[in-house]
Write a structure and sequence with these properties.
Elements lengths: L1 H6 L11 E4 L13 E4 L2 H10 L10 E4 L2 H9 L12 H5 L9 E7 L5 H8 L3 E11 L3 H12 L5 E2 L3 H10 L11 E4 L2 H6 L6 E4 L5 H17 L1
Parallel strand pairs: 2-3, 2-4, 4-5, 6-7, 7-8
Antiparallel strand pairs: 1-5
Helix pairs in contact: 2-3
Length: 227
C-alpha cells in the first residue's frame, strides 16, 4: 500500500487499527460429508494452514476464497480455489455453484457478519463454521498515533474494512472533529451504507485491494483540487 501511495505522490503512514490473534488448541475442521469449503479472508487461510495440511482436504471438495488475495493465499498453500472475481460475500453468493443446496464449511474468524451462512442456510445448504482467529482492537500506542495524525489534517484516511473504520471511530470518540471533512476511503458500498449516518465524508473504492483503495484516493484528490 505505502509503495502504491508513494508512486501516486502521496506520503502514507500505516497505523494498525485491527489486530489478529490466531486461536490455539482448537480442533481441526471436520471434513465429513463436505462438498464446499469457503475461506473468508487471508487470515482464515493462515489460521487453517497452522492447523491443517492441505492434503487433508478431501479430493472433490469445491474450494472458494472471497477476494483475489484470499484465492492467492489458498493457491500458495496448495489449495486450488475459485472466486477471484468474487470480491465480496454478496458476489460469491451469485456463483452458479450455490444455486443448489450444498454441504459447506466456512473458515473464518470469531464473530463477524452472518450473511453468508444465513443465506446458504435459507437456500437449503448445510453449513458448519470453523473459526481460527479473533479480531482485536488497536494497541493504545496506535490509538494515540492515529489521533496525532488526524490532528495534523491528513488529506484522507484509508480503511480496508468496516471493522477497521469502527475502530477508528472508537479511537476518536469524544473528538469527532478530528475526522470532520477528511475523506474516508472505504472498500465497499456496504461499508459506506453502514456508516452513512456517522457524519463522515465517505469515498467508496471498488474493493479492499490496495490498488483499488489508492485509485479511489487519487480520484478523490483530483476532485478536491478542482473544487
Amino acid at each position: 500500500m505505502l509503495e502504491l501511495l508513494a508512486a501516486e505522490g502521496f506520503a502514507g503512514v500505516s497505523v494498525p487499527m485491527l489486530r489478529i490473534e490466531f486461536l490455539e488448541s482448537i480442533a481441526p475442521p471436520d471434513f465429513s460429508e463436505l462438498d464446499t469449503l469457503i475461506f473468508i479472508s487471508t487470515n482464515a487461510v493462515a489460521a487453517f494452514a497452522q492447523c491443517v495440511k492441505a492434503q487433508a482436504v478431501p479430493k472433490g471438495v469445491k474450494i472458494f476464497g472471497i477476494g483475489q488475495q484470499t484465492v492467492s493465499a489458498l493457491n500458495d498453500i496448495g489449495l486450488l480455489a475459485e472466486g477471484a472475481n468474487a470480491l465480496t460475500t454478496e458476489g460469491l453468493l451469485q456463483h452458479a455453484w450455490f444455486s443448489a443446496p450444498r454441504s459447506v464449511l466456512i473458515v473464518k474468524g470469531e464473530g463477524g457478519r452472518q450473511t453468508l451462512r444465513d443465506t446458504l442456510v435459507q437456500r437449503g445448504s448445510r453449513v458448519r463454521l470453523w473459526e481460527g482467529y479473533r479480531r482485536l482492537g488497536p494497541e493504545a500506542c496506535h490509538k494515540a498515533q492515529m489521533c496525532d495524525l488526524l490532528a495534523d489534517s491528513p488529506i484522507a484516511v484509508l480503511t480496508q474494512s468496516g471493522e477497521t473504520l469502527a475502530n477508528v471511530l472508537d479511537t476518536v470518540n469524544g473528538n469527532s472533529a478530528l475526522l470532520q471533512g477528511v475523506p474516508v476511503i472505504v472498500p465497499s458500498q456496504r461499508v459506506a451504507d453502514t456508516y452513512s449516518t456517522a457524519g463522515l465524508r465517505l469515498v467508496v473504492a471498488r474493493s479492499a485491494l490496495d490498488k483499488d483503495m489508492v485509485a479511489a484516493l487519487t480520484l478523490a484528490a483530483k476532485g478536491a483540487r478542482r473544487e
